[in-house]
Amino acid sequence: MFGGVIGLDLGHTSLKLALCRRSLTGRVSVTSIEQALPAPEQAEAAPPSLPAALRELFQSHRLTGLPVVSALPGQSLLWRTLVLPFDDPAKVARVVPSEVENLLPFPLDELALAYRLFPEPVGKAARAGRSCTVLVAAVQKKDLRGHLDLLAEAGIRPVGVVPDGMALWSACAASVPLEDGQAHALIDLGATHTTVCVCHATAPPMLRAVDLGGWHLPGIPAATAPVEDAFEKGPGALFLDALVHELRLVFHAYEAQVKHPVVTVCLTGGAAQLPGLRDALNRRLGCDIRTPPHDPRFSIAHGLATAPARVRAASLLDFSAAAPLDAQRVHSRQRVRRLAAGLAAIVLLAAGDVGVRYYVKETRYQGLKQELRQRLLGQFPDAPVVDPLSQMKTALADATQQLRLLGADDPLVLPLLADLSRRLATEAPLQMHGLVVERRSIQLEAETNSFESVDVIKRALARAYGGGAVQTSDVRASAGPGRVAFKATIVPPASVE
Question: What are phi and psi of 290, to 5 degrees?
Answer without folding.
Answer: -125, 170
